[in-house]
Amino acid sequence: MKKTVFIIGACVCILFLSAPPVKPGIQFDKSIATKKLIPATISSITEDFYPMAVHLALHGMNFPPKYGSGNIARLIRLVTVGGSGDPNSYTFYIGQTGNWTATILDDVFGFSVPAGRRYRIGVVQFEETPTGINNKTLVSNEVEFLVLMNLDHVTPSPVPHLGTEVQVFATNDLGPQGTKIVKYGTLPAQITQWAAANGIIKIKLPLKAQPGTHDLYVEENGIAVSKKLPVQLLSIK
Question: What's the pTM?
């Protein structure tokens, strides 16, 4: 079943058949649906990392206001690349709390959006009616973008010696492990646990690792799908 997720602050609502009702006092204006839309253009996307969230910003031009007349609203839509046949396919809508101007749209999300995946990102307009959300319309181009995992810190730090179990903490949902591996420098680490929803990976550093500081990151099919986190190893034994 295809899943649709609306992210409102720290609350996540997964919608299957229904949607939020019309805001009190707002009347449905059917004429809005016939008005010509000026397509917005996304020229680039940036991702920054906060201690407990990820910040996504869309840069471009002709972005419409967040709210139109009547019951028109717009949000940023993220659709996982892979299609509806993918059992881990999701559609996310964000944009309730961030900045929204004609040239930049941004918002912050945490565990609600699985990271380490590619998404088609665009701006969607929809109508809120008493029966739900209708007439979703893409009003911009879509840009494919890899949302990186935010590896935040490890414990213990520094790592005292090889053989120590290391917990890696991320600030977003890691999604399924699949073919993902963890690397320390250029060497694969041993993964002992992958707790996606909690943002925790337990590993043991590679036996051939040398003392010093090396980048720890997640890789899939030869591509880094996480931020690189410097981790210090004090001793081999």
Answer: 0.74
